[in-house]
Amino acid sequence: MNSFLTTLTDINSAVNTFVWNYGLIILIGTGILMTFLTKFFQIVHIKEWIKMTVGGLFKKKAHKKGGQGTVSQFQALCTALAATIGTGNIAGVAAAIGTGGPGAVFWMWVAAFFGMMTNFSENVLGIYYRRKNEKGEWSGGAMYYLRDGLGKYKNCKTIGKVLAVIFSICAILASFGIGNIGQINKITINLESAFLSGVDLGTVGGIKITSLIIGIVLMIVGGLIIFGGLKRIAATAEKLVPFMACAYVIGCLIIFFINIEKIGDMFAAIFKFAFGAEAVVGGFVGITVKEVVTQGCKRGVFSNEAGLGSSVMVHSASHVKEPVVQGMWGIFEVFADTMVVCTMTAIVVLSSGSIDLSTGQFLGENADTLVAQAFGNVFGKPGEMFVAICVLMFAFTTVLGWSHYGTKSVEYLFGIKGGKIYKFIFVPMIIAGSVLTSSIAWDISDTFNGMMMIPNLIGVIALCPIVMKITKNYIDRKIKHKAIEPMVSSIPEIQNEYSAKIMLEEQQERETASTK
Fold it and tell me: Model-level pTM?
């Protein structure tokens, strides 16, 4: 077993280094490109996307259930957030700071700012190129806009199909890494630390019995939800995500105000070590800019998944007609995930006392439980238990969301029957996540992230003219109030059906406005 894990670690390390050295350049470059091409949509039209997302949460349209094979806009968001707000927001942020210093937080913000437009572009393309499967369910994602979008370019038919297959395979592998092994691993570590620290049931074949029991319980509960399909996953996410996110942010805010006198030093450290290569106390090697940037961006992607092309698969199942509307939900998804939740975690970690704010040095022994320690410093043992429960809910809902992503990827390659077989493999893998070591789980997740990211970003870059046209079309109609035909689908039948409905709605809106 040990020799197998050693070999696995060596192979993964080589692939991880290669993928992320080039993947990060493409990732940040794509976000910058889409930000400029859409003329800084996330800033210039901030009023519009906040109105359509945060403002829309109080409107029935966002919560309206769709027909067969669809979910509401709010359910699509919650399922996407369920898959993104996971251990990356807690353990991932702590690991980034522990490895790359406080400056890693700055690069998480940078990745998120540009990632907003990457996620926006992915969702726009996802809705525009989606189609119905044999069961009448919406199927969308990078594989479809690679095949049907990029593949329509001259001499690119084969390239589009090949990249679609590569993306699907990588997404399936990623679903076992970021969407299963990494999440379950952190659940197990935190539950054992908070609730089972004094419990020793022995081992079986070198595996802790407590870890095995946790894995089995999670597998049973997960199976009951996952085999219920997207509708059951979305219904679960709709109930858990708002509650868990609000509870965690409130807990972080309490620590924020308790440590209000340190806030200035915390933010100063974030900016100070974002670019510096200062040596840390004790003769340790200095934290280089490359390491800080890499850790910040990698953990940022692990957290919000912008650029992976993953959340597109659930956003495409929304009953929304307008690609840009779902694109704006994508902007909000990244904002809520990184700018809000991850920033709260960073403040908690930097206030824990395990980070020397003057040198950026990590003083602790294990970054995995940094957040739990910080909560424990303020609330005692109940604080550690609270974090363990948050990790449980965050990570478990991530597993649910990623099971859908993996199912859709398998469905693209092998059809609906293949998706059913995939679930029978995915669910038992939950046990593997509970018994693997932490470092291997995280490293595998990082590698699979990068592997699926590259073909997706190639598709987004190649199809950026389509994103620009669709975005301009929306702005001209909704903001400048021009009476022009909407761009909603690459499939003529869907385009004609939805376009007629939207134009009728807009005409009625103009008539109503003119009578006031």
Answer: 0.80
